[in-house]
Amino acid sequence: MDYSNYLSYALIAVGVFTAYMAVVSLFSKDRNKARAEQVAEVLPEQEGHGLTVAAIILKQVLTLFGVNLQHQRSSSIQLAKAGYNSQKALIYFIFFKRVIQPIVLVIGVYILFHLFFVNRESYKEHLALFITSLLLVVIGSFGSGLFLKNSEQKRIQELTKTFPDALDMILICVESGLGIDAAFARVCKEMKDSHPIVAAEFERTRFEMTMMSDRVQALQNFGDRAATGAVRTLVSSLIQAERFGTSLVDTMRMIAEEQRTDRMLKAEERAARLPALITLPLILFILPALFMIILGPAVIKLNEQGGIFGNEK
Question: Residues 173, 183: contact at Cβ < 8 Å?
Fold first, then answer.
């Protein structure tokens, strides 16, 4: 049996997966850098600065394809929800979505067409190539969407978990007489090591509130990036305070109490689900062994006496 074809197809599959992970790493490096340094990303007025040579080249390629990055607001919001706020991340994402992804899809569809219609029944002989083509079709069709959705869900979970602590600290700062900007700065300083994601969001919001002419818009951007109920409630309260000059102490105390209660209820809910979750492992793995331990000696003794398996001649 010739294994050279299978080896070559396996190497192709590994190469495709490596290429996909390389594209993913472009985003991961950008987000990890933001987490480590805890600095605000570039504002829209400064989008031309801070680009690498590769990003500039890809931007020119996208321009040749007729893609205007200024009109990609929906993609920018999706990337911001996933934790990628720089223009460099937007360039990489649009290039992968508009250029790389269609090419990968066409290659995958061509391989499938060749397997099913040109060389019939060949997909049974070349299983590795068939799996590779399916992987190419999936990446070409849903690669960017799946990656963003996964990153957004992980980020929302992290924000939901750590935001009540940040909210308590903001409440303490506001009660002590600090303004919102100073409270955000204090939260960033205290939580940049323990909760880097929420600290980065507050740092970016503080920077936008300082540099942008419309502070309400900066708060709305914060609510768009961190799409959780607690953040939106806080943003609504801050916008109301900015517009009408209302007091924040009572409102933030109520929000902080609600968030602590919600976190406790979620923990109790997870604890209540444990009996249902361990039922299937208990039935599959523990009960058979328990039955063997309890009934095993009796079965062996009865078998020796010829009572079960009929050892009688």
Answer: yes
Examine residue 294 and state whether it is found in any structural domain, yes or no.
no
Tokens of 224: 């768009």
Task: Give the chain's length.
Answer: 313
| Residue partners of 242: CB distance under 8 A and separation at least 6 | 215, 216, 219
Report how far apart, in Å, the C-alpha atoms of 190 and of each of 63, 176, 181, 238, 248 are.
Answer: 42, 16, 14, 21, 21
Question: Directed axis angle between helix 249-281 and helix 229-244, to 10°?
Answer: 170
Q: Would 214 be classed as within a structural domain? A: yes
Instruction: Determine contact, residues 209/215, Cβ cutoff 8 Å.
Output: yes
Q: What tens digit of pLDDT does each residue of 210-225 get? A: 888 888 888 888 888 8
Q: What six digits make up the tokens of 86?
A: 């720089």
In this structure, the answer to whether residues 141 and 14 fall within a common structural domain is yes
Coil, helix or strand for 48?
coil
Q: Is the pTM of this model over 0.70?
A: no
Which parts of the chain sit beneath pLDDT 50? 1-3, 29-48, 313
Name the one residue in this structure whose structure tokens are 């996208």.
62
Answer yes or no: is 89 within a domain: yes
Domain residue limits at 17:
4-150
* Residue entry with tokens 């993913």: 24
**Where a domain ends, among 150, 173, 192?**
150
